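Appendix B. One record, verbatim.
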Amino acid sequence: QVRLVESGGGSVQAGGSLRLSCAASGNTRSRPSMGWFRQTPGKEREGVAATNAPDGETVYADSVKGRVTISRDRAKNILYLQMDRLTPEDTAMYYCAAGSVRAGLLVPWAYVDWGQGTQVTVSS
């Protein structure tokens, strides 16, 4: 099992930036895939960005391409999500997830470990 703790959320104005962090502990070697997901009340959780350690594959949701960068510090076991040019549509609870995903890096149910989430609120 892997424990995930997110941080870095907050309130920003449209056009601003935030960097989310996810500290992982435990059996992290068993979880080569890590990703960021978000959810708003009444909606399904959706994938934002994810990365797979063995081959370095990185994927982004169309809604965030060009504005978001996912990165991973494997030495420190920290996953980052740099978000720029934020819009009110980015407002959501953001979750970090870990797993061993062979296909569908942005599919939530492919992941087994989840953090508690960090809230991002973007005002217009």
